[in-house]
Known about the structure:
Elements: H1 2-17, E1 79-81, E2 88-91, E3 114-124, E4 128-131, E5 134-142, E6 148-156, E7 172-180, E8 202-210, E9 215-222, E10 228-235, E11 249-259, E12 270-272, E13 281-283, E14 291-296, E15 299-300, E16 308-310, E17 317-324, E18 330-332, E19 336-338, E20 350-351, E21 355-356, E22 370-371, E23 377-385, E24 391-395, E25 405-406, E26 409-410, E27 414-424, E28 430-439
Parallel strand pairs: 21-28
Antiparallel strand pairs: 1-5, 2-3, 3-4, 3-11, 5-10, 6-9, 6-11, 7-8, 7-10, 12-13, 13-16, 14-15, 14-17, 17-18, 17-19, 20-22, 23-24, 23-27, 25-26, 27-28
Amino acid sequence: xxSSLIILFVSLSSMILSQEICxxxxxxxxxxxxxxxxxxxxxxxxxxxxxxxxIPNSNFEDFTSCPSSHSQLTAATSWIQASSAxxxxxxxxxxxxxxxxxxLPSNGSPIDNGYIGFHDISNLTGIGIYKEYVGACLSxxxxxxxxxKLKFLLGFxxxxxxxxxxxxxxxxxxxxxxxSSNCADIPFAGFECPANSGGGFVQLASKLVVGNDExxxxxxxxxxxxxxxxxxxxxxxxxxxxxxNQQPYYFADGLTVNEKSAFQExxxxxxxxxYCKNNLLLMGTTNPGETIxxxxxxxxxxxxxxxxxxxxxxxxxxxxxxxxxxxxSCTISNTEKVTHxxxxxxxxxxxxxxxxxxxxxxxxxxxxPKFSNxxxxxxxIFQIFDKWGxxxxxxxxxxxxxxxxxxxxxxKSDVFAWKYSFKQVTSTQKENKIGHVNLVR
Length: 441
């Protein structure tokens, strides 16, 4: 009897040790992986595998033939080459990166074997604006008046200096989703965005996405005003801000669209204070009955289980929080990076040109204030006015400038007024200034 109890005790102990506890900073199951780094701590996060997508083959895993070169999007089952500019299909069965050059982001990974890539170029030799798009006919229409969510991974290509062109992604890109009421509208003609093609497409949503040699999770919400049978995804209609010899390139995977109600509520991190003043707070969102736990680089920060985390600026890393719902299911927030770049404290010098030439040459095509360090700028707003005082451009992103257009129509050569307002993270005083710029064509 005693030996049986000992055997039972040992068996129970082994069972306990075989399970990872996800909030104690310890490798409980001995597999070398701690907390969120262990697959046992994965959450149902409202995306990809756990939410069915109205886009068939949303993960690009099914194919009619293994891609062997670029411009073979149609090898992916159910996907249509939406634009005259040709997107690329990649699969580890063969063509998993541009031959001889590894452009995939170093941080993160696609969901599985298949994914796609596309260009957003301001001035391709012999063509001009060159934007690549992917499209599909939906398995069932998106209905007018219903709110939908699109969730996917966007990869920022790291480039390869040995390649003929610099295929490094820009540090930010406007990604847009378009739709139409007729599947026969795909493909559309032209190298610019679908909304400018005259093919019945409307832009449903867009989002500025920021990244550097990494895969980033992107979410957009939109409510169609008419039933939509098709979807197209790619760059926004704005002209890219790439420079000489650049051909900005991006990857995408897991293009999941469904009604917003099909997704769990996503959780994001908001910030208060600054790195430079050493008073940075990261804040999460909790509801009654939920518990929260903070993590740094995937490992639990033991004892940090309130909605506010005070961050020591000497502690660089990736911060997240995990929510446990009353039914013991969970979700994980986005990642907030604390890096040395954001701690280069001082002042940012601002220079504003007095003229620009948006002629797609591509020199001096975009007008914006130029900062020596945009990470030190906050509460930013930049506006452009015509000679009658009408607002024709506005942005809160110091990296975004005016391309000389108003409602996608090129403005004629003239003098325009500009105004900016911002403050340095190390100061409480706002800087306000107005001036004039000459648009020359």
